[in-house]
Amino acid sequence: MILIKNLLLWFSLLGSVAVNAADYVIAGKLLDVRSGSMLSDQVLTIEEGRITQLSNKVDTSIPQGASVLDLSEYFVTPGFMDAHVHLHGSAKVHGYNNLGLSQPTKTLWGVVNARKTLEAGFTTVRMVGAPGFADVALRDMINNGELAGPRILAAGPSIGITGGHCSDNNLMPYDKESVGAGVADGPWAMRAIVRRNIKFGADLIKTCSTGGVLSKGTEVGAPQSTVEELTAIVEEAHSHGRKVASHAHGATGIKNALRAGVDSIEHSSFIDDEGIHLAKKTGAYLVMDIYNTEYILGEGAKAGILEESLAKERRTGATQRANFEKAHKAGVKMAFGTDAGVYPNGDNAKQFARMVRFGMTPIEAIRAATLNTADLFGLSADVGELSVGKFADLNAFPTNPLDDISVTEKPAFVLKGGQVILSP
């Protein structure tokens, strides 16, 4: 009993939610992400976690005794969003080493990583695949105020074919009879898994239409799931009001998923001209994790990533970055997604500098992590910009991120719903 009490105490302290809330925030410079301009001396009035008024400082009367956060010396942006994260588990444990982590251990890592992600300025994220619906549980604990973390859209277990990238456990030998929780073959089996995931709380559906870098025995660009299977997933998910994210590296698998009607393509490494055209035609978002390659090739071997996977990444990373630039120039809709969890959660903002290096302006990169990702999430009424009616999610930086995008990697202040999460 003493052990249980001590564990619960540690758990509550680890994930405890900030209690300081602001009624007013004074922003020296506030980024209007739509226009790309910095507005001077703005005051945000906050009630029940949402912005009820945005006004100039000289025109605002702040009542005596109100809780005021003075950010007059800072540059303020909306809270960021990441469309592709894995909070459960550790970036230091990959490959066969990962088999030694129990589900409870991975779940507790989710608590740690949720806080790190929030303190990094990412106030809303999409978890695209987690075992045992641990992401649903984490989402609910955060929503109930029991733990600190970003708002989470949870996918539950990823769905895919036998031996596929995102659903099966290919590290285990045949005699262990280990089958992943999201494995399905054939359109009706795919529909059944979608229904199960929704039953147990999934906000979206994650599937795979190609092999992957980090899965044993899959070719990174090879198609997985037929168009018929993918269409069944999309039809079933959309009929329940859920969007579908498809992991897809190879050109054929990307086009199969787009023809099936998915809402976003994750990774998009080997997308070709036809795939770019299809993405523009369907309005699907590309979510391209172009920072991730640096961690995989620089630190992956120490973390246990298999040589097979490292070789696949060597063939993938540079092409993905070139295609990121190509797709951006073509005007494809792009959301911000990092695959955090493969590399350490909390380092999400390191991708901003790579997006700028490979073709975006700083404001375009920030829009990808705000307006664009909010649209992909279907949450534009709540998040994505600092305007009346939206949640008071914001980050503050000592210098202008439009001049040096790397400043986003270390916010001085973070607010989520008007609560002060991080301060100096």
Low-confidence runs? 1-13
Basic shape:
globular
The strand count comes to 15
Tally of contiguous helical segments: 11
- Listing every helix as H and every strand as E from the N terminus to the C terminus, the arrangement reads HEEEEEHEHEHEHEHEHEHHEHHEEE
Helix content: 25-40%
Strand content: 15-25%
Gap from first CA to last CA: 38 Å
Strand adjacency order, main sheet:
3-2-1-4-13-14-15
Mean pLDDT: 93
Largest sheet: 7 strands, mixed
Structural class: alpha/beta
What Rg do the Cα atoms give? 21 Å
Q: What's the helix and strand layout?
A:
Elements: H1 2-14, E1 24-32, E2 37-47, E3 50-56, E4 68-78, E5 80-85, H2 103-119, E6 122-127, H3 134-143, E7 151-154, H4 187-199, E8 204-208, H5 227-239, E9 243-248, H6 251-260, E10 264-267, H7 273-282, E11 285-287, H8 292-303, H9 307-330, E12 334-335, H10 350-357, H11 362-377, E13 394-397, E14 413-416, E15 419-422
Parallel strand pairs: 1-4, 5-6, 6-7, 8-9, 9-10, 10-11, 11-12
Antiparallel strand pairs: 1-2, 2-3, 4-13, 13-14, 14-15
Helix pairs in contact: 4-5, 5-6, 6-7, 8-9, 10-11
How would you describe this structure to a colleague?
By secondary structure, the protein is an alpha/beta fold. Helix content is 34%, strand content 20%. It contains eleven helices and 15 strands. The strands form three sheets. The chain has a seven-stranded mixed sheet, with no helix packed on it. Strands 8-9-10-11-12 form a five-stranded parallel sheet. A hairpin with a 2-residue loop joins strand 14 and strand 15. Helix 8 runs antiparallel to helix 9. The chain is globular. It starts with a helix and ends with a strand. The relative contact order is 0.16. The N terminus is likely disordered.
